[in-house]
Amino acid sequence: MKILTKIFGSSKRVAWPFLSPENEATVTVGKIVNCEKAILLVQHDEDGWQFLTGEPFDTSDAMLVGLGEIVKLDPSVLELADLPVGWGARRLTAKASWLREKDDLLA
Fold this sequence. Notes:
Blueprint: H1 2-8, E1 25-29, H2 30-33, E2 41-45, E3 48-52, E4 62-66, H3 67-73, E5 87-90, E6 99-102
Antiparallel strand pairs: 1-4, 2-3, 2-5, 5-6
């Protein structure tokens, strides 16, 4: 076991920080899932989570993806686990800090 821990890192599982389960469906777009674009806009409304590019998109590109898969694609979204319903977060680039904002349209 110690050898595996040295190779793969700690065997301890980090606590899941979201109130929503890892398998909860979220809305995203194919360009994020295919790693063509970064997540630059996150919205949390009464219907759940949306992880978007911040650009206009055609609804035919929309996808339902488990929250855990979103975290695997971009672990920085873990910083938003406590984002209240009715709030969003955005950033200019994938390396930029998240800026949180209350969105009266989401509440």
